[in-house]
Target: Lysosomal Pro-X carboxypeptidase
Amino acid sequence: MLSYSSLKFYGDSMPFGNNSYKSAKTLGYLNSQQALADYAVLIRSLKQNLSSDSSPVVVFGGSYGGMLAAWFRLKYPHIAIGAVASSAPILQFDKITPWSSFYDAVSQDFKDASLNCYKVIKGSWAELDALSTHDDGLIEVSKLFRTCKALHSVYSARDWLWEAFVYTAMVNYPTEANFMMPLPAYPVEEMCKIIDGLPKGASKLSKAFAAASLYYNYTQTEKCFNLEGGTDSHGLHGWDWQACTEMVMPMTCSNESMFPPSSFSYKEFSQDCKKQYGVKPRPHWITTEFGGYRIEQVLKRFGSNMIFSNGMQDPWSRGGVLKNISSSIVALVTQKGAHHVDFRSETKNDPDWLIMQRKQEVAIIEKWLEEYYKDLKQN
Amino acid sequence: MLSYSSLKFYGDSMPFGNNSYKSAKTLGYLNSQQALADYAVLIRSLKQNLSSDSSPVVVFGGSYGGMLAAWFRLKYPHIAIGAVASSAPILQFDKITPWSSFYDAVSQDFKDASLNCYKVIKGSWAELDALSTHDDGLIEVSKLFRTCKALHSVYSARDWLWEAFVYTAMVNYPTEANFMMPLPAYPVEEMCKIIDGLPKGASKLSKAFAAASLYYNYTQTEKCFNLEGGTDSHGLHGWDWQACTEMVMPMTCSNESMFPPSSFSYKEFSQDCKKQYGVKPRPHWITTEFGGYRIEQVLKRFGSNMIFSNGMQDPWSRGGVLKNISSSIVALVTQKGAHHVDFRSETKNDPDWLIMQRKQEVAIIEKWLEEYYKDLKQN
Model:
C-alpha cells in the first residue's frame, strides 16, 4: 500500500528527525523518485528477510499514493507485478489536462445536485467581496461566519468556504465517512439541501456559510469556528515542498465554475516558492520523468497489469486515466464514486456499483497472480 | 546514441570543470540514473527546440552505453520508442550471471583459436610467478618484456599481459580495427598464430609476451614498452567511481580459465573503495533499480521494442540478453561477432553475417517506426 503515512517526510517517518523540514538540503530527499526507490529497496529487503523472493507483489495506492503505485509499476516492473492506482491524477501535470478542469468538476458536482445551489455559491463570492469594502466589513463577516475571534482578513472566510466545497466534492461518498472531516452520505447533496432549504430572502453568502458549516460541523459540536491560524488539518506538510519542486499542478477557475475566475501565473508561483524554500519549481519534470502526454499511445505497446480507478464525483478524476489503454492496462470508472472510494473500508450500506467495482479489482488481480504463477512454473 | 562521450563526467563534459573528480560530493552526480535523466531532459528539450514533439526517437548504445539504452527504453518509454542495446551486459550484476563467465569466455576465444595457444597462456603465469621469486627476477622480466624503464613490480607485467588478452578477445573483430588499439582482423587468431609459430623450446612467458606485443605494437612503431605509470589509455576515468558505487560486477577466474584462478572478495573490494573514494559499493542496487533476475519472466509481459545484440567472441556477451524475450524484445546473437561490432563503421571487407545483422536491426527499427506512425494517426 503506497500511501503518505508509509513515506519518508510524512507521518512519523522523518529522515532527519525534527530537522527534516529545515531546509532544501534535507527536503531534497522528499520527492517522488526517491519515494519509489525507497519502496523498491524496502520491498526487496522484506521479501529477502521473509525468504519469499519469488512471491508476487501488487502495489496499491490512492491519490498521491495512487500516482506512486502507477509509476512504481512502470519503473519497477521487476518488483511489482501489478498496480492498482485509485484516484491517481497522473495527467494533472504540465498542459496535459485543461487547467480549469478540477474546479469545473467541483462545480459540476454541485450543479448536478441542484442548479440553484450552484448559482448561490457562484454568487456568494461577490457578496463577500462587497462586504470587504465596507468599513465594518470584517466585523460583519466575523459575525456571519460565527468566528471564535475577529477576523484579520476577508480572505480567511473565502479560503474557508473554498476548502469546504472542494473537499466535500472530493469526499462525496455514498456512505457516512470521516476522511477529512466527519460527513454524511453524499455530502454535496446535503449541502445543497441546506442551501435550497433556506429562505429566498437570505443572502447568498449566508447560504454558502450554512452549507460550509456542514463540512466543518457535521457533528454539531462547534460553538464557533477558527478560520485563522489553525494548524493544517490534512497533515500534508510536505506537499507544499513537493508542489514547489516537482508536483506542479497548475489550476485555474473558468467563468463556468462556481468559483471566482482566476488564472495561473507561473511567475508568481515561482516567486512564492523561491521565497518559502529557496527553490524554483520544475513544471515539466514530472512529465519528463514519468510521461503523461499521449499516454494511450505510449502504454498501448508498453507495460501491463495496471488498474486506474476513478470516481467521477472526485474532481481529481479529470486528471486521471479514464479509458482502457490495453487489455491489461484498464480504467475502472464509476459515475457516483469519489476520491479513492474503492479503498475505503467496506460498510453495510455500500451501494451495488461500489461492491461491483471492488469485485472487479479483485478479479483482475487474481488474473495477474494466476499468470505470474503460470510463468514462474515455465521457467 | 548513448555513449560515454556524450555523458557527464566522460569526455569533455565535466559538470564541475576540473573539480568534477575531486570528491564524492561532485562525483555523486556520476551514476546511471542521473545519466538517464539527463538524456530524458536533453532529448525532450532538443525535440521542443526543433519543433518536432511527435518525432519518434530510438536510442542506441554499446557496452555501458548499451546498458543505458536498454534501461532508457525501460524507464522512459514515453521518450524513446525503442532501443538497440549492443553488447550490453545488463545481467553481469549481483549473482545473475556466474562470476567466472567473463574470463571463461575470454579463455574460450583463445581455446577456439588454438588449444596450444590457450595452454601456453595458461602456463605463462606460473613462469612469471617463478621469476618474481628470483633475486634478479625484476631485471629478467624487464628485459623479456622490453620495458623502457626497469620495472618496480612483477604485477605490472601480469596486468599488461592480462589487459592484452582481455581486450583482444573483446575486439576480436572480423576486419582491421582501431577501437582500443590498432589491430588486425580476428586478432585472437593472429595472437595464437604468433604463439604457435614460436619454437617449442621457448618459454611460455616469452610466447605470451610475443602475443601481447601484437596488441600493444601492431603497427611496429614501439621500440620499448611502458608497463608502469602510463595514463589510462581507455579514457574511462569515471568507471572506477561507478564500479565503487553502483556498477559492481564481481568477476572470478575459474580453474578452467587461462588466467590464474582467483576469487572475489566483497570485503576487500569495499575496503579499496572506502580508501579511494570514501564510499561503500552497493552491490544490489543495479538489480533493485533496473532488475535483471528472471528478466524473461518480467519482460515477457512488460515492455517492448528492444534489440539486444551480442557477439559471442565478446566476453561481455555472457552477461547479455541472448534469447528472445517476446515478439518485440529480441536478441540478435552472432557467433563470430565481438564487442558491439554492429555499431562499427561499415567496411568493404565486412562478412555476410555482419551485413545481415545490421540489415536485421534496420528492418526491426523500421517496423517500430511504422507502428508508431500508424498509432499516431489513430489518436
